[in-house]
Design a protein that fits this description.
The structure is a homodimer. Chain A is α/β, with parallel strands linked by helices. Chain A is built from 16 helices and twelve strands. Chain A has two domains: about 170 residues, glycerate kinase, domain 1; about 230 residues, Rossmann fold (3-Layer(aba) Sandwich), CATH 3.40.50.
Chain lengths: ~425, ~425
């Protein structure tokens, strides 16, 4: 496969730029007079905790929660595993313990919050008077409603005892420094893990308006909680600050630099592209053809890069996987053009339901598939990208990377 | 509406760059010793004929075929109207007359072929022994088969008496100069109007393979014609040459120049972008946000431009229209961002089923719609872009432009 080595190197650079072990040491706050307490939630939180305690000179203690299977060994910071994307009791217990951990601190103490994607489900604690089951029902109703994620989060934050800045509020007067790995469009820190340590601009009134707008059928307890509007989320947290230590854009820049050194003109389209994977691929193909024919919007040899999360609407029997679906659609559209190669992969190492990060395509992808009796158009219609690339031996497999800055897509035009 | 004037001016520049009256005079061939015969087919052929006879110094005669309602007055060249996209007898008669017109010429004579999109249906003449009805059935079977347009055209060219270079072949030894307005990806001249004056690289054997591949159920006469393989399409036409006088890219460059003069950095993504309109919009939104936040891939103020034809899969009660669907999806995705405006329109003046070229959006599109009690998300789900922009008074209406270089999409980021 053409350029597999260079494309793999670009992916590795993108992942490295988001690895806690590589980036956390550059963002250590000044040592406080008092104690240092670590809290945190997200798919990367265990890896962040391990990296933090390795880089930090001094005593640390604390607790982070991560997804089942995402633990790494730590010496001082406790790691708890919980369920994602549907919260469970383990996450709830961890959230309660975390709130207790930061209570009673003084202004000489420092809380470090290690925040990454997935933290919203992992760190779930119903507001006083509500149960986990009630919150789960609200979640299910929200997911069915068609409400955009921003509106869902307004409701969620107003049913939680820890989201929307409440964790930082609980730590007052201790200082809270959040080290954040972003996986959200625009790197809106209040959206990563539902922002437990960041001010929340939304209100109970807005939460009620959203419930009305989508006609959500909620329990009396939940309705009562929203109506009483006691204990609004904090609009001001003078003790808290947040630092973005890794982001999709930073990883794109790292991958682009590898391409540049290999002689390609990098063209970064966006760090948060969305849309149906197969159509996003068709647009990428159109841009690649423009580069190829007119030297626009960048000259050849060119590396087109993009990040963000596409979606796959499952219609066939395959398991989907947005990066492999993107690549299969791209290959079908380009029809074996002899100077174009590509790679797409999830920086967390897991593309959809398979323990595979992504795959590669090259000029010979379609012809090799057909030689094996595989019809690429049928496989695409069947959402069987993972099956397709497995049979070709062109998967990108690296195991869970324990970080996540969404997808990396690269198209090389020679 | 913000920037409506500038966006309209960009659209006008794109259309002007593809107007026969503006471009044909620059591409006149040298005057021959003998006669000058005009032939032609396409939605722009009447406008091209009128522009040609106005610009040409000397005697001209001939015949062109255009779509019902697309005639313009001419003095010397006859204009015939026929059906599009399903061929009718009028087109068939015109095709037969055109072949007769170019027969018996000498090498001192010059045939000018005025070719534009739509000509494939308008200039339809079944090969000897086949009927129009048989060809119509093949067409219907091809459209249902899922075969890509390139494969459909291989079959069509091998069932035709005029497509695939046969018109130029008939004119030999006269010289044939084709003036072409392209509406196809890559400006492949053999694909515009099925290339009646351009060599055809495909063969009867390939046509038969495509019939087998898609299991097409064809009449005995059609099967017999493909099996006998008499009279292959010409692979060499020493008497013919083709000149691209207008193309999507040329129109994009003209619109980009207007933006540049108004202080915007133009970023042309591609002249032939495809994909489902709402998803193409989401990708454009992602690129616009990248420009806005990181000054990539171009600095602000920036004008993102793209061409080509998207598709709309109708699921709601609206009539679709790929440009208005693109804009509605873009508006919903951008959620009223205060420094982004956009326009999308078909350069032929007709976006889908409405006599409307396209529309505009600005920061206040969503809020104005909601104030009128219109839900943009519902209207998008309903494929009702035309209804949406009609109610807002933000349509772009210019009447049929009598040319076609596909769509023009512009996003301005201030």
């Amino acid at each position: 496969m053409k350029h597999k080595k260079l494309l793999t190197k670009m992916f590795a650079a993108a992942v490295a730029a988001a690895q806690p072990s590589k980036v956390i040491a550059q963002h250590l706050p000044a040592k406080p007079k008092g104690r240092v307490i670590i809290v945190g939630a997200g798919k990367a939180s265990a890896a962040m905790a391990a990296a933090f305690e390795k880089a930090w000179r001094g005593k640390v203690e604390g607790l982070v929660v991560t997804r089942y299977g995402y633990s790494v060994p730590t010496k001082h910071i406790e790691v708890v595993e919980a369920a994602h994307p549907v919260p469970d009791v383990a996450g709830q217990t961890a959230a309660r313990r975390m709130l207790q951990l930061v209570q009673g601190l003084t202004k000489d103490d420092l809380v470090i919050a290690l925040i990454s994607g997935g933290g919203s489900s992992l760190l779930s604690l119903p507001a006083f008077g509500l149960t986990l089951e009630e919150k789960q029902k609200v979640n299910a109703a929200l997911l069915k409603s068609g409400a955009p994620i921003a509106e869902m989060n307004v409701v969620r934050k107003h049913l939680s005892a820890i989201k929307g800045g409440r964790l930082a509020q609980a730590a007052f007067p201790a200082r809270v420094v959040s080290l954040v790995i972003s996986d959200v469009p625009g790197d809106d820190i209040s959206a990563v893990a539902s922002g437990p340590t960041v001010v929340d601009p939304s209100t109970f009134a807005q939460a009620r308006a959203i419930v009305t707008k989508y006609g959500l059928d909620l329990s009396a307890a939940v309705q009562g909680h929203l109506a009483q509007a006691i204990d609004e989320t904090p609009k001001h947290l003078p003790n808290a600050k947040a630092i973005l230590i890794a982001s999709p854009q930073q990883s794109l820049l790292a991958a682009a630099e590898v391409a540049r050194k290999a002689g390609y003109h990098p063209l970064i389209l966006g760090d948060s592209l969305e849309g149906e994977a197969r159509d996003v691929a068709i647009v990428h193909a159109g841009i690649a053809l423009q580069v190829r024919r007119f030297g626009q919007p960048a000259r050849r040899p060119c590396a087109i890069l993009s990040g963000g999360e596409t979606t796959v609407t499952l219609r066939g029997q395959g398991i989907g996987g947005r990066n492999v679906e993107f690549l299969l659609s791209l290959a079908v559209k380009l029809q074996g053009m002899n100077d174009i190669s590509a790679m797409a992969a999830d920086t967390d190492g897991v593309d959809g339901g398979a323990e595979v990060a992504g795959a590669f395509i090259g000029p010979d992808t379609l012809s090799r598939a057909r030689a094996l009796g595989i019809d690429p158009v049928m496989e695409l219609a069947n959402n069987n990208g993972h099956g397709f690339f497995a049979k070709l031996g062109d998967q990108l497999i690296c195991g869970p990377t324990l970080t996540n800055v969404n997808d990396l897509r690269v198209i090389l035009i020679d």
